[in-house]
Amino acid sequence: MADPYTLLGVPRTADQAAIKSAYRKLAKELHPDRDTGNPKAAERFGEVTRAYDLLSDKDKRAQFDRGEIDGEGNPTHPFGYGGDGRGSGSRGAGPGGFEFETGGADFGDIFEGLFSGGRRRAGGGGFSGFGGRGQAAPKGANVQYRLRVSFIDAATRAQQRITLQDGKTIDLKLPAGVETGMQVRLTGKGEQGMGGAGDAIVTLEVDKHAFFTRDGDDVRLDLPITLNEAAAGAKIKVPTVDGPVMLAVPAGARAGQVLRLKDKGFTRKDGSRGVQLITLVIDVPSDDPRLRSFLAEWTDDRAIRTQLGV
């Protein structure tokens, strides 16, 4: 991906307000629903969204500015401090924001093997084959990985294909209740040792979304509607994590009113799903002569603020 500042058209000194403003303008121009016949528009929209995700995250932006990560959020030096990727604390990177850390940082399994007691004695009190009487051969070290998952994939638990440090690929099913910081253990996918292979520990990081936000197991969306749609009611298309659906906006809808779509949130640990909460935002045109002409002939004389004591 190109430089995120270049993609958004902002200088490196831009503050968060300028970055957000630039993204909103581009997202409106490039949204796939606006130009369905142009596949490059969808690709460009994705690039701009990823650029905004990086620059809107204070820590990631600082890492990018220091040259520690690239525009995709991946380490610029995959193998840490110049090692071969297998030494203590070494790091590698795979496709899709998938990173691994190997080696001496994880001694737990080794010590467990060295001091496991006589659980694996050979032939009724003989040597176990490693380090003397009653000692089991240690397993290899665990390998730590980090996997970035898109917001939509996390919500729908889409299968993730990852590449391990040995070059093998596996399909990882995301757990229910997936969230940033959650870990998945892949038994026997770590370093090889005399007592067998250690495990791979995958730490998940869920990306932000351009317009969805997470609220526990629910998904929130601010949905713009026109004054006509609010007054008369309408059936309109709205995005969800599972794809667009039709939503009935009731006549007389109010700004801030929240509508619910069942089973359009994140999967809970019990297998059920949260809801999508849609907050209506009435978009009134700022300079429409027809609206001004109508309002010149009509006035709402209701006392709508009496409950506020004014």
Kindly describe this structure:
The protein is α+β, with helices and mostly antiparallel strands and 310 residues long. It folds into three domains: 4-65, DnaJ domain (Helix Hairpins), CATH 1.10.287.110; 91-106 and 141-206, HSP40/DNAj peptide-binding domain (Sandwich), CATH 2.60.260.20; 213-308, HSP40/DNAj peptide-binding domain. It has eight helices and 15 strands. The protein has a five-stranded mixed sheet with strand order 1-2-3-9-6. Strand 10 and strand 11 form a beta hairpin. The longest helix is centred in the first third of the chain and has 17 residues, at 39-55. It is elongated, with a radius of gyration of 27 Å. The model is unreliable at 79-96 and 100-132 (pLDDT under 50).
Percent of residues in beta strands?
15-25%
Low-confidence stretches: 79-96, 100-132
> What spatial order of strands do you see in the largest sheet?
1-2-3-9-6
The SSE string, one letter per element, is HHHHEEHEHEEEEEEEEHEEEEH
How many helical elements?
8
Named CATH architecture of the largest domain: Sandwich
Distance between the termini: 55 Å
Number of strands: 15
* Cα Rg: 27 Å
CATH domain class of the largest domain? Mainly Beta
How would you characterize the largest beta sheet? Answer: 5 strands, mixed
Query: How confident overall, as mean pLDDT?
Result: 80
Shape: elongated
Within CATH, the superfamily of the largest domain carries the name: Urease metallochaperone UreE, N-terminal domain
CATH fold group of the largest domain = HSP40/DNAj peptide-binding domain
Helix content: 10-25%
Helix/strand-derived category reads alpha+beta
Question: What is the total number of structural domains?
Answer: 3
